[in-house]
Amino acid sequence: ILKQLREKTDASIGACKNALEKAAGDIKRAVELLRIEGSKIAEKKAERVTGIGIVEAYVHTTQRVGALLEIRSETDFVARNPEFQKLAHDIAMHITASAPETVSLLLEQPFVKDESTTVGALLTESIARFGENIQVTQFSRFEI
Question: I need a labelling partner for 56 at 20 to 30 A (CA). Which of 17, 28, 48, 122 fits?
């Protein structure tokens, strides 16, 4: 069960173990507990400065629509992490597909790869996973 929870949430083994103990082995409840804990972690880190980051570009296969995204983290260590770069790529792809007008609207939208979550929730989960504040600072979408 611990392995399933870790694969499903990508949380640390210790966090998964604690959540399973609190949930008396109920994996659905443990997922919810991890989500709540992740939100608390994100709130604590929200004020921290995000001085490092990357610019991610995504162009759809039609080459008629694409997006540039600026996403920031606290350290270069996280910015160079392949999982952070995958997050940036996924958000740039979402922007291309969903055409949000502002960062706040982007964060409220259901995520295109998983409609059961929002882009904001995806960001919150990433903050908990990396242990650093992460912010989408700006983006531009281009369409012919």
Answer: 48
Write the CA distances from 115 to 5, 32, 65, 112, integer angstroms.
Answer: 20, 17, 21, 6
Which of 12-21, 69-78, 122-131 is the least confident region?
12-21
Tokens read off for 53: 């980051």
Spatial distance between the Cα atoms of 68 and 59, rounded to a whole number of angstroms: 9
Please write the tens of the pLDDT for every residue from 20-73: 888 888 888 888 888 888 777 777 777 788 889 999 999 999 999 999 999 999
* SS3 of residue 121 by DSSP: helix
What share of residues in the chain are helix, strand, coil (percent, to 5)? 55, 25, 25
d(CA 35, CA 33): 5
> For residues 73-111, b (16+ Cβ closer than 10 Å) or e, as one string?
bbeeebbebeebeebbbbbbbbbbbbebeebeebbebeb
> Which amino acid belongs to residue 121?
A
- CB contact at 8 A, 2 and 13: yes
Alpha carbons 139 and 114: distance in angstroms, whole number: 21
